[in-house]
């Protein structure tokens, strides 16, 4: 099914075609979350096999965040300059080769390097899927399609670690990367066979550093953007602290096995996913700014209480799960509304603003996961302290940044606060 779809004259497509497009775009969107979460239950096994520590293994997660940060800024101009499919094909091939490298590596340094390359490859899938929604579907359908893709992003962290836990327990951690390789190959074949050409290459798009940098600088100078994008990124870093620290906390501190860890991760994902879906309901009565204020204050209170309990030695597995669930619920409200407010001032530069916001988000994730990996002794404290710090710093940034916003662009009431990037 090789179809060329015009950007400006979209026609009603057959239901079968619509289904295939949603399936392929959903697969592209799911590749990143699966690559992040599926190998988490294997941290202790990887550490033992590569003769290192689980904390050092978490640097491979930090490396993945580095790759995504770079890829966010790289693929935007490439997808406009060369069309959607060529950069996507190249990215998927890079992802497949890097996944094979992860499976066969014999050192932790090799795993970290291959994870960075794997992330750069997978980022093509994430960025292209968003761009192609705008290309292939009428504007009236975009919100519906993005909702479906957001659901895929939300469900993936529930499925990936659970499957990864069973795969690791039965076949070893190498098998996880063989499965990811297979996913990459299947998605590549699907894009070649069924994904339409949705965008003609724009040869006028400059790939020279100066115009690209100037475009990004124009976005950064907007006070509403830097206030809410940095607030959202720092608040969201609490989620990255949880992802980076949870294998150590649950499998080395509380001594759960890979299968139980997978189910715990799936359960806690319900908090983040559920609150992000309920966000639309609250936006019918409150503005995004009001939701951000309330959620961030709650996030700070829960984070500080969590830290006090950890320092006092009062945390059991049950109490840890309760605190994490509540904290992740707050993140589910804070980040999407902060993202919506940060992008609200833009129309022409929305793509660049989205890319920068994603880079900020992954950059903070990298920093906080590296900080956690520096603590060699298994403990709750690094993860919990990082979560409390991220929430408190985000609230401080929001309070200070608002003073520089002279003209605020509001998010329309009833709009979905979620954003794809």
The quaternary structure here is single chain
Main sheet: strands, sense, barrel: none
| CATH H level, superfamily name of the largest domain | MFS general substrate transporter like domains
Q: What sequence of helices (H) and strands (E) makes up the elements?
A: HHHHHHHHHHHHHH
Topology, number of strands: 0
* CATH class group of the largest domain: Mainly Alpha
Helix content: over 70%
CATH architecture title of the largest domain: Up-down Bundle
Quick check: average pLDDT? Answer: 86
**How much of the residues is beta strand, in percent?**
under 5%
Low-confidence stretches: 1-11, 413-421
Q: Shape, please?
A: globular
CATH topology annotation of the largest domain? Growth Hormone, Chain: A
Membrane topology: Multi-pass membrane protein
Transmembrane segments: 18-36, 56-75, 87-106, 112-133, 145-167, 173-195, 225-248, 260-282, 294-315, 321-343, 355-375, 381-400
InterPro entries: Efflux_drug-R_Bcr/CmlA, MFS, MFS_dom, MFS_trans_sf
Domain Major facilitator superfamily (MFS) profile: 21-403
Please summarize what this structure is:
The protein is mostly helical and 421 residues long. It is built from 14 helices and no strands.
Features:
421 residues, mainly alpha, Growth Hormone, Chain: A, 78% helix, globular, disordered C terminus, MFS_trans_sf
């Amino acid at each position: 099914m090789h179809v060329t779809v015009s950007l400006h004259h979209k026609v009603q497509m057959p239901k079968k075609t619509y289904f295939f497009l949603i399936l392929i775009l959903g697969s592209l969107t799911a590749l990143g979350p699966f690559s992040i979460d599926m190998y988490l239950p294997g941290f202790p096994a990887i550490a033992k096999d590569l003769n290192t520590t689980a904390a050092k293994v978490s640097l491979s997660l930090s490396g993945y965040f580095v790759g995504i940060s770079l890829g966010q800024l790289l693929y935007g101009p490439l997808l406009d300059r060369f069309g959607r499919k060529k950069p996507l094909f190249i990215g998927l091939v890079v992802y497949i080769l890097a996944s094979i490298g992860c499976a066969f590596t014999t050192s932790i340094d090799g795993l970290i390097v291959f994870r960075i390359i794997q992330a750069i490859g997978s980022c093509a899938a994430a960025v292209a899927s968003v761009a192609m929604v705008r290309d292939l579907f009428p504007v009236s359908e975009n919100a519906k399609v993005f909702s479906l893709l957001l659901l895929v992003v939300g469900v993936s962290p529930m499925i990936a670690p659970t499957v990864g836990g069973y795969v690791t327990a039965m076949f070893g951690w190498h098998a996880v990367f063989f499965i990811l390789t297979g996913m990459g190959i299947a998605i590549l074949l699907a894009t070649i066979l069924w994904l339409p050409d949705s965008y003609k290459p724009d040869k006028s798009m400059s790939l020279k550093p100066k115009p690209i940098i100037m475009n990004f600088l124009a976005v950064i100078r907007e006070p509403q953007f830097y206030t809410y994008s940095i607030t959202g990124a720092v608040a969201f870093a609490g989620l990255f602290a949880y992802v980076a620290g949870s294998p150590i906390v649950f499998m080395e501190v509380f001594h759960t096995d890979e299968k139980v860890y997978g189910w715990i991760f799936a359960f806690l994902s319900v908090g983040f996913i559920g609150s992000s879906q309920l966000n639309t309901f609250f936006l019918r009565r409150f503005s995004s700014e009001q939701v951000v204020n309330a959620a961030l204050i709650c996030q700070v209170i829960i984070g500080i209480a969590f830290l006090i309990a950890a320092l006092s030695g009062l945390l059991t597995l049950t109490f840890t799960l309760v605190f994490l669930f509540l904290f992740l619920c707050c993140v589910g409200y804070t980040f999407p509304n902060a993202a919506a407010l940060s992008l609200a001032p833009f129309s022409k530069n929305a793509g660049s603003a989205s890319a920068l916001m994603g880079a900020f988000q992954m950059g903070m994730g990298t920093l906080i996961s590296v900080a956690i990996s520096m603590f060699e002794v298994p403990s709750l404290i690094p993860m919990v302290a990082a979560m409390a710090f991220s929430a408190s710093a985000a609230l401080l940034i929001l309070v200070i940044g608002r003073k520089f916003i002279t003209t605020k662009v509001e998010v329309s009431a009833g709009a979905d606060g979620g954003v794809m990037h």
